[in-house]
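Researcher: Please predict.
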Amino acid sequence: MLAIGDVHLETNLLLAPIAGHCDLAFRLVCRSLGGLGLTCTELLHPRGLLDESAGSLVLARIDEREHPVAMQLYGCDPALLADGAKWAVDHGADLVDLNMGCPVEKVTGRNGGAALLRSPRLARRIVETVRAAVDVPVTVKMRLGWDAGSLVAPGFARDFEKTGIDAVIVHGRTAEQRFSGHVDLVGIRHVVEATERIPVIGNGDIKSADDAQHMIDATGCAGIMIGRAAIGRPWIFRELHAELTGTALEPLTVRDKLLAIRQHVENMTTLRGERRALAVIRQRISRYGASLGHVKTLKETIRCAPNIETVLASLDVMIDDPVNSQRTIVHPGM
């Protein structure tokens, strides 16, 4: 349905690389539920990869079950990013994505992420150097500009296309906005119009199939990247793909969703350890709960759970409830 370079995706729906949320444990859940065309690691600094620091290796871990998958790199040193891209390909990445959109001070303060939108020559040199270093597709994820007075994304996209970039993903906000206000569909359309051949992927404020279809219709973008809405709804890709393509699909029951949450907990425990798994599910259960209906007792039990065994047992009680095998909850955004 969507090709990025020579990588063909089954759908035009992509999972955004949200720091702190989209690790392998979560990506595997999203992939297993269907409808997802491409996963991506959280943003990675190439120095951590090349030095093989423990933290970087955890975040860079991918799994055969999630292909095709991209690794996202950030930084401002072209040569270092090129070496990081080679490392990513050597360790299984099907695509390399360059982050030029993160607005967080920790990243922009080191001239990475969205800060590159203020340095067009450096940004181009990065793209050229990384493009020449690897044989897999290379993409750039960026924002519309640093602020409302510098909406540079169309010019950047046009320039990157000339260097051989394979796709551009654009979040329809400026770095200064972070996540405030509303996504600017006109701004995304200008990026689409600035390119000739490469696909442009739209990103921002997608919570439902109506949102996705409206973005596609209003901008002409070739695909949709979803981030925050997926955090508590890993099944959103399954639902959106079915609605966008007119595919008949049985809605997931509450039991189905509970099984997905249980799988996430098991994945986290296996990949990150019980302590990390417990911390994440305590924080994430509120987001999950919004799609489950009246589960206050479950949420409170998990928030106060002393160990993973208690979390799994509380989930199993609800999973085994015969009422949940038939009950469906439609998210307000759907």
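Model: Residues 240 and 246 are 10 Å apart (CA to CA).
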